[in-house]
Amino acid sequence: MRNLILVAFVEPVTEGLVFPRSDWPLHITLVRFDVGATDGADPAEGIAALAQAPAGAALGARLTVGNDAGFGRNGSVPVSLIQPQPDLQTLHEQLVAAVGSLDGKVLTPAHTLSGYRPHVSHHGDKRLYPGDVVVLDRIALVDMAPDGDRTVRRVLRLWGRDETAGAKNPRR
């Protein structure tokens, strides 16, 4: 089984980037899942092929940052909520369906489809603020344990609109 995640990065990244699990670039989780090989094929290749069209269609969507909230146990994880946006919700739903078509297992089923609450977790001083606008311009497939190493993450596939686009009005 491969532990993979599809995300929308709001900070610049490159395909092939490896980063520590404790130092993610700011991102919106689209769907996290486990998937096994089918017919000996790499499941990452299968999900990348299925994600290509939905990712391409969503690129360029403008997202507005809403209020701060606390997620996780006792609300201890500070996040910036993303205001509801139809293109983002459609992308999420299409990616969940793609995972399902490969018999993948979504790891947070209560937080998918109608339970999906897009957000950007704060990371130290890095965060977004209410009213900030970000452009959905970097959608990525990330391996949560490349070569079996759970201490790092690797960007396997990156769909981008414009490498210079990104957070608007960031206060970092």
Can you walk through the features of this model?
Helix content is 19%, strand content 35%. The protein has helices at 43-58, 86-101; strands at residues 2-9, 18-20, 27-35, 62-71, 77-82, 105-106, 119-121, 133-135, 138-143, 152-160, 167-168. The strands form 2 sheets. Strands 2-10-9-1-3-6 form a 6-stranded antiparallel beta sheet, covered by helices on one side. Strands 7-5-4-8-11 form a 5-stranded antiparallel beta sheet, with no helix packed on it. The protein is globular and about 45 Å long. The relative contact order is 0.28. Residues 163-172 have low confidence and may be disordered.
Helices and strands in order:
Blueprint lengths: L1 E8 L8 E3 L6 E9 L7 H16 L3 E10 L5 E6 L3 H16 L3 E2 L12 E3 L11 E3 L2 E6 L8 E9 L6 E2 L4
Antiparallel strand pairs: 1-3, 1-9, 2-10, 3-6, 4-5, 4-8, 5-7, 8-11, 9-10
Helix pairs in contact: 1-2
Name a few traits of the molecule.
172 residues, alpha+beta, six-stranded antiparallel β-sheet, five-stranded antiparallel β-sheet, 2 helices, disordered C terminus
Secondary-structure element sequence?
EEEHEEHEEEEEE
Structural class, from helix and strand content? alpha+beta
Mean of residue pLDDT?
Answer: 92
Largest sheet: 6 strands, antiparallel
Low-confidence stretches: 163-172
- Tally of DSSP β-strands: 11
Shape: globular
Distance between the termini: 37 Å
Percentage of helical residues? 10-25%
Q: Count helical runs.
A: 2
Spatial extent as radius of gyration: 15 Å
Adjacency order of strands in the biggest sheet: 2-10-9-1-3-6
DSSP strand content: 35-45%
